[in-house]
From TrEMBL:
It comes from Caballeronia cordobensis (Burkholderia cordobensis). The lineage of its organism: Bacteria, Pseudomonadati, Pseudomonadota, Betaproteobacteria, Burkholderiales. This is Zinc-ribbon domain-containing protein.
Length: 115
């Protein structure tokens, strides 16, 4: 039960030698997975919803900066995404980097103008 508490998931059916436990996430989704791998498996419904919401958020980040998110969807924080700025420059960057900094080519142009 410690694994369930760690991830705020709840074991609905106790595990036996041949029984795979059934889990429930905090939002009521159910899935089954063996107890020994439960610590590495989360609710796939919630994960899919989070990826969809993050993709929408990143598209808005790009839109506000006058650009576009060219990648079809967010995968995870470590996976680079393709971006395009308002001037057509295309690059790859992780979501956290693109949220903080934008187009490196445009930044170089601005920096060169001030030199």
């Amino acid at each position: 039960m410690d694994e369930a508490a760690t991830y705020r998931d709840q074991m609905l059916q106790s595990a036996g030698a041949t029984v795979i436990p059934v889990w429930e996430c905090g939002r009521g989704h159910h899935w089954d997975t063996a107890l020994d791998i439960a610590q590495n498996v989360r609710c796939m419904n919630c994960a899919s919803e989070r990826m969809t919401l993050e993709t929408k958020r990143l598209r808005e980040v790009a839109r506000v900066r006058g650009g576009m998110l060219l990648s079809s969807s967010y995968v995870d924080a470590a996976t680079p995404l393709r971006w395009q700025c308002a001037y057509g420059h295309v690059w790859e960057a992780r979501s956290d980097a693109a949220s903080r900094r934008w187009c490196a080519e445009c930044a170089r142009t601005v920096f060169a103008a001030y030199r």
